Amino acid sequence: MTADGLEARLREIGEQRYHHRHPFQLMLQNGELDRRQVRAWALNRYYYQAMIPIKDASLMARLEDPEWRREWRTRLVDHDGEAPGEGGIERWLKLTDGLGFERELVQSTRAILPGTRFAVEAYVHFVRDRSLLEAIASSLTELFSPKVIGTRVSGMLEHYDFISEETLAYFRPRLTQAPRDAERALSYVREHARRADQQQAVMAALEFKCDVLWTMLDALHHAYIDGHVPPGAWDGESGLVAGATP
Ligand SMILES: O=C(O)c1cc(C(=O)O)c2c(n1)C(=O)C(=O)c1cc(C(=O)O)[nH]c1-2
Predict the structure, then answer these.
(1) SUPFAM superfamilies in the record, alphabetically (predicted)?
(2) pLDDT by residue (tens digit) across 187-225?
């Protein structure tokens, strides 16, 4: 397959399997969730945010070219910031603050769903254990994130009176960071996946990553929409600051 052919296949995988199609995502953007369900989403997704720089640090440690390490380093800065109080993780905490969560509960991650934990850990392990090409390819879901983020942000602002531009501040920089990161990862993959077996591995890596994101939303759906909250996971009430609207 040519590089263009491979890119077209990758875009097809995203169209079919990315979480923009997940029922929980559709309910979130269409205003069909209650405050408790939106809280559960923010609480669980914190774990993804917190682990992204850890997976990127492990990926970066395997990049032998300083040029590529410099490129990848910006991802760590985007999430961790250059100083305390900055960066994506901190902005995600602004969202959980806005939803009334105590930071201690969020940052401890003790109340997240086991499904969230297993899915996110699987991503971190995949990036650590597979080839560098597969690790980089697994970040390519970001080709599709600006669109789903745009729909999610405008839907949430329209439908939920407990959500504001300020609490959703996490997503604004992602609209420029994600395309930049995805373009770099895509150019790496186009250049390095030449043989058929490499191209198959790249497509499988993207499918795996779509499954990670899908599984995170499945876990939320099962617990907080179907009502099967696993033992030990957030019960919908605890961990809120005194005076937060239930
Ligand atoms: O809101 C979203 O739908 C969404 C999706 C994804 C993604 O496609 O993996 C990421 C993000 N957000 C995100 O904010 C982010 O920092 C991020 C990093 C990565 C990655 O795989 O390295 N994906 C994503």
Answers:
(1) Heme oxygenase-like
(2) 999 999 999 999 999 999 999 999 999 999 999 999 999
Distance 139 CA to ligand 1 centre (A): 8
N-terminal to C-terminal alpha carbon distance within the chain: 54
Residue 40 belongs to a domain: yes
Report CA Rg, the chain: 18
| Ligand 1 atom with minimal separation from the 148 CA | 3
Give the 3-state secondary structure of residue 136: helix
CATH number at residue 203: 1.20.910.10
pTM of the model: 0.97
Q: How far is the CA of 243 from the centre of ligand 1 (A)?
A: 32
**ipTM, interface predicted TM-score of the complex:** 0.98
The reply to whether 245 falls in a domain is no
In angstroms, what is the span from residue 242 Cα to ligand 1's centroid? 32
245: tokens are 């609207």
